[in-house]
Amino acid sequence: MTSFKNLSKMMVMRAAILVLICGLSACGGGASNSETALEPPAEFSASDYLMQQQFVGTALVVRNNQVIVDQAYGMADIATQLPMSTSTKLRLGSITKMITAQAVVKLKQQGFIASYDDAFQTYVPEYPHSDVTIRHMLRNMSGIPDYLGLVDTTEYVEAEELAEGLATLDLKFTPGTEFDYSNSNWSLLG
Fold first, then answer.
1. CA nearest neighbour of 103 among 112, 115, 94, 114
2. Residue 45's pLDDT is what?
3. Cα angle at 164 between 179 and 167, to 5 degrees?
């Protein structure tokens, strides 16, 4: 399991990469295409920075349909010394939360969800906690325990099996009264 310190470092690294990518995409301002062509030193500079920071993952930077950086860094599996590659399959993690939230908004816009303040149970009748709303889940204020502390994350768990397990748990607090980051909200909404 990733420690909080390592998780924080990873989040800072992802933010730094985003800034780097935004910076690369903005290079050159209003100059012509021939003047804005990215020189190799910028690519090497980005790669050097990621290696120096011991970034583990992949980076893909595309500008004007031209691949500028397509590189893997670090080890995919430290125990076997398997290096990361650009084809290594990784968990998407929290990236899916944005997509899930957008899907919920789209369902609301299309009339499939009447209100964000509807009980989640309105749409998933087998969910036992009638006081948990969609808004609570979107805001991580539902009180639903985070499944990450409850399951073996090295094993695949079907979404339905996870939902059934979460339905058996008591809430940690009255929905809407506290903030508690919980991956379970997003898994259930998905």
1. 112
2. 63
3. 40
Measured CA to CA, the distance from residue 173 to residue 127 in angstroms comes to 17
Q: Which residue has the tokens 């909200």?
A: 185
Nearest one of 165, 162, 168, 171 to 190, comparing CA atoms: 162
Chunk the chain into consecutive blocks of 10 residues (it has 190) and report each block's average pLDDT, rounded to whole numbers. Answer: 39 44 41 44 63 82 87 87 88 82 96 97 95 97 93 83 93 97 94
What pLDDT was estimated at residue 182?
Answer: 94
CA distances in angstroms from 9 to 17, 25, 42, 56, listed in the order given: 12, 24, 23, 11
